[in-house]
Design a protein that fits this description.
alpha+beta, nine-stranded mixed β-sheet, 11 helices, 19 strands, 32% helix, 23% strand
């Protein structure tokens, strides 16, 4: 089997790996740990991982440290160039956009319950890794507030809180608008909310750099600027990955862990199975204590609102506001500027006391959707030497590392004594009309915006 690199579904500007990302994280992460440089020669390993973000680095670390299996990660850009260095730094429950009730109807209640337990475990996993490995990654805030952006959305959040109590014995307290203000979050678009007690906020690029150091600490190798441009099998059935600078990496097993930046045309099993969706972030200058008090926003607990096309919001350690949101289906530079301006307008409406506050950083990147809105982690049943780890649905900071720990055990043939659902292990499913993924996304956005802003809950 031989395959050549294929086409992309967005403007080339978003894939320009030689361009630095103008993010706050890039400006404040500090020096990047050493890596192994470009792969431009012959090399061999037991496991090759395509993708050097949180997922890929975690997989290399767990394979080498826990199982003594040689592993190498290849990344098209510098380490942290993709989603791992662009996200909002939310350690939150996710990896699927389907509700637990939907999952129960499709896969049974036992697996739906395991999804919930794995989501909780993944949040705890990140905190445990940071503390046990001494990673300085700016952990901040306990849990997450989900706020009703319209009064009629509070009933749905109350129902979610009640379901958590009934099904899992979990206490997700409900707050009125006034109670939420007392806890440090006030906005014209906050009409109450709930507190999800799992998760935290962090500096995602510091976390990625920490994982880079861990991945190499037990003999793993990590090669940035080593895009895979051809993937084939040799006469012995081993994988051969050809890199952009003429390198060739031979491996017994290959895992694709590239999420929204998954390249199509390398292996047909990965063509048309992901839908990258743009996410956009603005960050302000540091806000003074008086400015934060004037708006009534003083908590460091991460916040998401009740929209389908949600805003995700954090006050950072130095007082800056991070304001992010889904939307836009053109990755051109001009479209990026226009959508950034729209985001700035919305920021001033959500937080009117900060209308004149300067924006110091703005950037965008991909979240990764799948056809059935569930993440994927596993090995192909008919080819146990090819694996997959992607489909984070905007919540990959927590689950990517936890899922990598699970997948490392599967590759090693070892047991895994922590919760991990069967539904996430299913073979990636192709979109029905892959060439129409972006137009379909634009139509879905129009519908969701109507539901979010106009139609009753």
């Amino acid at each position: 089997m031989t395959a050549l690199i294929g086409s992309r579904i967005y403007d080339d500007a978003i894939y320009a790996t030689e361009r630095p990302v103008p993010s706050l994280w890039e400006a404040t992460a500090g020096p990047r740990p050493a890596d192994d440089g470009r792969l431009a020669s012959e090399a061999a390993t037991e496991v090759a991982v395509i993708g050097g973000g949180i997922a890929g680095l975690s997989l290399v670390w767990h394979l080498t440290r826990r199982h003594g299996i040689e592993a190498v990660a290849l990344d098209a850009g510098k380490i942290g160039w993709g989603a791992s260095g662009r996200n909002g730094g939310f350690v939150s429950m996710g990896y699927t956009k389907r509700s637990l009730d939907e999952l129960a109807r499709s896969f049974g209640w036992d697996d739906a319950r395991t999804v919930f337990e794995a989501q909780k475990a993944a949040c705890g996993y990140v905190i445990d890794v940071a503390r046990s490995e001494g990673l300085e990654i700016d952990l901040a805030g306990r849990g997450e507030y989900v706020v009703a952006h319209r009064p009629d959305r509070l009933a749905g959040l109350r129902a979610e809180s009640a379901a958590m109590k009934a099904q899992f014995g979990e206490d997700w307290p409900v707050f009125t608008r006034e109670e939420l203000q007392e806890r440090g979050y006030a906005s014209p678009e906050a009409h109450g909310g709930i507190h999800v007690p799992h998760g935290t906020g962090l500096h995602p690029l510091k976390y990625t750099y920490g994982l880079l150091g861990l991945a190499r600490s037990h003999g793993g190798r990590v090669h940035p600027h080593s895009a895979v441009v051809r993937w084939e099998r040799d006469g012995n059935g081993r994988h051969v990955l050809h890199t952009q600078d003429g390198g060739r990496l031979r491996a017994r097993t290959v895992v694709v862990a590239t999420n929204g930046f998954t390249t199509e045309g390398l292996d047909g099993r990965f063509d048309g199975v992901t839908l990258p969706a743009l996410s956009n972030i603005l960050v302000t200058r540091p806000l003074t204590e008086a400015e934060r008090q004037a708006q009534g926003y003083t908590t460091d607990v991460p916040v998401a609102d009740s929209r389908n096309l949600l805003f995700y919001i954090r006050l950072l350690k130095d007082g800056r506001l991070l304001f992010g949101g889904r939307g836009g289906t053109s990755a051109s530079e001009a479209a990026g500027r226009r959508y950034g301006d729209y985001m700035h307008k919305r920021l001033t409406e959500v937080f009117p006391a900060w209308k004149e506050v300067e924006i110091t950083h703005r950037w965008r990147g991909f979240v990764c959707l799948t056809a059935d809105l569930m993440g994927r982690v596993g090995l192909f049943p008919d080819d146990r030497q090819t694996g997959f780890l992607f489909g984070c649905h905007g919540s990959g900071v927590a689950m990517s590392g936890y899922a990598a720990k699970f997948l490392a055990a599967r590759i090693a043939g070892a047991g895994f004594n922590e919760p991990f659902p069967q539904c996430f292990q299913r073979v990636p499913k192709r979109f029905p009309l892959p060439s129409l993924r972006v137009p379909a996304l634009a139509a879905a956005y129009a519908w969701y915006r109507l539901k979010d802003e106009v139609l009753p809950a």
